[in-house]
Amino acid sequence: QVQLVESGGGSVQAGESLRLACSASYPYSSACLAWFRQAPGKEREGVGYVHSGGDTPSYADSVKGRVTISEDRAKKTVYLQMNNLKPEDTAMYYCAAEPRPVRDLRLDLYNYWGQGTQVTVSS
Questions:
Q1: Structure confidence at residue 26 (pLDDT)
Q2: Is the Cβ–Cβ distance between 33 and 23 less than 8 Å?
């Protein structure tokens, strides 16, 4: 059974930083772990992903340069460090997992999702 629990969301001012965490539990040797976000009235979009086991993370162009994904393999936890936050980063942030090396941010490739953590950025 796969379980994903996000944490670390909150309300911040523009220019500040947040680090989100996704604690993953899965009965597989590895998985592709991704971050997505969904702003009110908008479609869910990919932020970035990493395949567990030391892959180099990959990021969506919209956030490249402001976010960093890292992994603590021992804890099966993936982090999303977001810097210089902007009001347009306001969204519910979701962690997703797939026990295959999908290495992509297509929504339909991920079968397991967390409940999300809210990030609100005010100007």
A1: 87
A2: no
